[in-house]
Amino acid sequence: QVQLVESGGGLVQAGGSLRLSCASSGHPFSSYSMGWFRQASGKEREFVAAISWSGRDIKYADSVKGRFTISRDNDANTGYLQMNTLKPEDTAIYYCAAVATLRLRTGVEEYDHWGQGTQVTVSS
Question: CA 111, CA 22: separation in Å to the nearest integer?
Fold first, then answer.
């Protein structure tokens, strides 16, 4: 089992940047593929980015491609989401998630470990 805690959210103006962190504990982080999801008010949780256990396989949602970068540091048991050129439509609660699989996954239903979420608000 693994426990996940997100941090780094906050209020930022459009065009600005934030770096989210996902600290893991309870099990070696290198055993898991991980993803970032977000949920805006009144909407369903949606895929943002995912990275395999090795960091060699990465996928992004079209809405964030070229602006966001997912990465991980297995020695530090931490995943990251660097968010640049933020837009108001990026406003949401951001969640990190993990699953013990070699395959990169993009569906909410495919993950079984979730953090508590961190709020990202982008003003215009």
Answer: 15
